[in-house]
Amino acid sequence: MRRLRPALAAATLAPLVGGAAAPGHTPPELQAIGWRKVEWHGIRPAEFSATPSGGVRVRAQGEGSFIARPLQGPPGCLAWRWRVDAGPPATDLTRRGGDDRAVAISIGFANFAPSAGFALRAQHAVAQASAGQVTLPRSALTYVWGGTGREGHGQPGSFFSSPWTPGITKVRVLRPAESQRGQWVEERVDLGADWRAAFGAHEVPPMLEIVVSTDVEDTGARVDAQVENIRLVPCR
Prior knowledge:
This protein has helices at about 5-15, 30, 120-130, 190-200, and strands spanning about 20-25, 35-40, 45-50, 55-60, 65-75, 75-85, 100-110, 140-145, 160, 170-175, 185-190, 205-215, 220-235. The chain has one domain (about 5-215). It has an eight-stranded mixed sheet. A five-stranded antiparallel sheet has the order 3-4-13-6-11. A hairpin with a 7-residue loop joins β9 and β10. The protein is built from four helices and 13 strands.
């Protein structure tokens, strides 16, 4: 079977993580720095472009899609900076069909959480068979600019289950929707510590890929956001 590119592998997993998807048109300047675009079926795709400094800009109006690239090796600390100049109002990220956010960064990992059941593993095996030689993520951490959650969920610092993939993806709001716009914010997260906190296990699996996404289909809101200088750094 032909080897799939990372973004196509993400698309293969898409039915498992909440919706059918297919590779989209990747602008040459993004392709040159390793990104591949993926689009959800039935949702108009957002516009992704490269910034002069080698970052990513996403613009949308009631749209949603994502870009992905490999990020392999043992998990350390991940750092980046981002800004949101326009984004959706606060939404409940724990609810399907209402979980809009300006921008999110997700990290895929090689192994399941200990709590992953037989049905989830079987679904994943089907997706993996279709993906060929590319290993699909079996767990993921998602860091969000947007939303609020409900009843304490989704507040900065806490992890909660994705409403689309509760057995695979844990979500953490770093910047709520009402955070100040138009300013760069530096972020630094400890992926190993976060994986252990989110999934309740001590042995943290290797990383596989990183995804930058936006989703404002439900609210129809406008997004203008940027992410730059994504890098692995030593954990202090």
